[in-house]
Structure formats: C-alpha cells, structure tokens
Amino acid sequence: MPKRPWLVESDKPSYQVLKWIGGGGFGQVFKVLRGGQTVACKQVHTDNAEAALDEYDHMRSLRGAPHIATLHDGLEFNRKTNSLSFFMDYYKGKDLDRQVQMLRGAAERFTESQIIEIGYQVAVALEFCHSRNILHQDMKPMNVLLYESWNPVTQRDVPDLYVADFGIASHVQTIGTRLTGQRGTPGYEAPEIRGQGYQAAFSQKSDVYAFGCILYRLCTLGDPVILDDIKPSDIPAEYSMDVLSLISSMLSSDRDERPTAVQVKEVLAALALKLFSSTSATCRSCHREFISNKALHKHLKKTGHGRKDALPAPTIDAAKLPIQTGDGLTIRGVASAPTQYHFDHDCEDDQDEVSDPSPCIVCMRHFKTKQKFFKHLHGVQHYRSPNYVSKRRANDELDVDAEKADKRLKNWVVKDMDRHE
Origin, by domain of life (predicted)? Predict the structure, then answer.
C-alpha cells in the first residue's frame, strides 16, 4: 500500500463509531467520536487505497477554503479490517438532496433568494477548487452538505453549505482538459464525457455543467435528464428569467459557451443585489420574492393571490451586503434579509418575551406573543379554521339561507383572504 508520512497503522481504531451515515461502492461514512469530538469518518477498503489517498491529498490542499468540507489531521490504516480511515467535520444538516426530496413531498419549493444563495456558496467552493487546478468531477446535490438542520419552508435563512466527496476528483497541472475514464453521476454528466469511456475529456466546464444540473434540480425539484442546450422557457419553474437564463447557459452542449465558476458567482451576486433592491416585492401569500412589481403582478394574476398581499422588500445597502472578494468569499445572510412582518406595535415592552412569531392563517399577520395573537383572532374573528369563519360570515354578514351557505363557503374564503381584513 502507498505510504504517507502522516499514515498511522494500528490494530485498534482511535475512534468510536456512533452511527452509519451513508456510503456506496467506494467507501462508507460514519459519525464517530474521536478525541472527545464528534466528526465524520470515511472508511475505505484498501482495494481503493490509491483513490482514498488521492482524495485525502486533494482535501488537504483545499483545507481552509470557503464552503469546502474541512479535513482533520490523521489518516489511519487498520490492519484487522484492512481499511483506511480519514476524518472531516460532521455536518448536522445532511445533504442538499434531502431538502429537495422534503420540498417535493410537501408540495413546496425553494424561494428564488434561497436558490441564489445556495448557488453562490457552491460557486465559491467550485471557484476555489478550479483556482487550485482541482476538478471535482462529481458535483451533485448529495455532495453538498448543510452545516445545520434546515427547513426551507419555515426557515428562509440558508445555512452554510460545504462541498464534499472528492473521491474521484483530479488534479491537473494546468487549467484545461484531462482525459479520464467516464466519471460522475448519470444525469449530471456533461455531453463531452457522457458515454466516452476512457477517452472522456473532463474540464472545469464539465464541473460547471454538473453545477447547472444542481440549480435545475433546485428549481424544478425533478431529476435532471439530458438537459443539453435547454432554453430558459423550457425549464418548468416559475423563477425570474435571469436565473433561468443562467442555468440555460451552464447547460450548453458547447463547453466553450458555458460560463466559468467565477462568472457564475458574479452573476449570482448581481442577482442577489437586484433581488433585494428597493424595487423588489414579495407575495404575502406564498412569500416568493420578485425583482419588480411587474413580475409580482404577473404572479398574482396567474395564482389568484390577492394583490394587497404584496409587501415591498426591505431596502438593502449594497455596500453593506456581506459579499466580499478574495479567499473569504461568502454571501451568507443575503437570503435572510429582514422580513417585514406585521408585528403589533404595542408589543415594544415585550421584547424579552419574543419567540417564534405566531402567524394568523387568514391574514398572515405575525405577533410577538401568544396574548397578542389570540387577541387578534377574537377581535377580527380570524380563527384557525377558515371553514368556521366562512360559516359565521355567511350567516351573519352575507345574510344567506343556511341551506345555501355551504355553496358560498368556498367563494367567501377566497374573498376574505384577498381582503385581509
């Protein structure tokens, strides 16, 4: 087996396995306790020792890079199990693909700001890899890890993301193309390497194509198929044309026409500034952001959401946005620009009681305390059950016969939601 000066051989591992996380034919990943610290351990059989050592070397050269999984010191060879083990930070939020599956199961979707921030963080990681002449060669949502648990439906803030799994990555001496065996995951393979066997010409633009497939999956929640030269209008997602056009350019069959990771990052940064400009607006019903009132009105007309639902997005000083240059690139927090909730202004003395805001399901107002929340419900009769409210209004205010009330319940609920009394 190839030797490394930092390779430690023993019959007993230095860690305690807590649980199995995942794995495949190349290796298994475990959550372990090592030196009093919870970390992730990748265990690889010595049949794949050369690839495991290459992955360790790649991650060592990228250690400290923004949005790339952090490698720990120590590479162990267990003579009893005939396996190699190395260690990384343990990320509680699992992988990005699980968020996609959760949203698809709940019939929800990512907001545009969340997609932009996710894309920016991945672009920063990919840019750093390419600046070190490292090709990832297996970009996909399963290899993007979340620092902490996240529910994109209830939490608009995107946590820190980290690109991981450099098991089939390659280092090139110069920026350009590397002839390798066919690598990657079906659905995320660029056309120049798809079906080419051992003559696959992999380049930085091949990583960009796979990155475009990731953004496509975030927008559509569907599995990417062959997406070569897909037009923005053919992407089945209701996001701005700027975002869809960027994805379309990344999925060009001609790799020379694809943008670089640096260019993708710059476009996403510009979109973030544009999205949170003073002209943007938000749909109050579904909380989607739009770059202009025109785009919002088009959405309202198509979905039937009330026009009065829209809240202007907060004005953000571009100079104060955490978009930096250099190795410390980050856009963390752009998607979490303060939301203009309708808090009760009478609650200023209750700052110590503030917890998660309680929403009114009828008018979508938020309150800092349960006392204010229930006072609102009883005051305007916005109870949690729209059916109860609709029956009461149908009998008391619309003055209709009880026999005909049920026929008008559905129409009334829509009108009441639009009025947001």
Answer: Eukaryota
Which CATH number characterizes residue 240's domain? 1.10.510.10
Same domain assignment for residues 82 and 126: no
- Note whether 227 and 255 are same-domain residues: yes
- The boundaries of the domain holding residue 37 are 7-89
Residue 284 belongs to some domain of the structure = no
Q: Write out the binding residues for ATP.
A: 42
Q: How many CA atoms lie within 13 A of 400 on its CB side?
A: 15
Residue with tokens 């019959």: 11
Is the separation of the CB atoms in 138 and 167 below 8 Å? yes
Q: Are both 137 and 217 inside the same structural domain?
A: yes
CB 264: neighbour CB atoms within 10 A? 26
**CA-to-CA distance for 238 and 218, rounded, in angstroms?**
12
Residues annotated within the binding site are: 42
- Which stretches of 259-409 are assigned E, i.e. beta strand? 281-282, 289-290, 311-312, 358-359, 366-367
The residues with which 394 forms a beta bridge, in sequence order, are none
CA dist 132 → 69, 109, 168, 174, 331 (Å): 16, 35, 16, 9, 21
Residues 221, 114: Cα–Cα separation, whole Å: 14
Q: Could you give the angle at the alpha carbon of 334 between the alpha carbons of 329 and 338, nearest 5°?
A: 150
Q: And the tokens for 346?
A: 């009478």
Given a contact cutoff of 8 angstroms between Cβ atoms, the answer to whether 240 and 113 are in contact is: no
175 burial type by CB count under 10 A (0-12 exposed, 13-18 middle, 19+ buried): exposed
Q: pLDDT truncated to tens, each residue of the chain (421 aa)?
A: 555 656 777 778 889 999 999 876 678 899 999 999 999 999 988 787 788 888 888 999 999 899 999 999 888 988 888 889 999 999 999 899 999 999 999 999 999 999 999 999 999 999 999 999 999 999 999 999 999 999 999 888 899 999 999 988 888 865 555 555 556 688 899 988 886 655 667 889 999 999 999 999 999 999 888 899 999 999 988 899 999 999 999 999 999 999 999 999 999 998 988 777 656 677 777 666 666 677 778 778 877 787 454 444 434 343 333 444 333 333 443 343 333 333 333 333 433 333 444 466 566 566 667 677 777 766 766 654 545 545 554 554 444 454 554 555 555 455 555 554 4
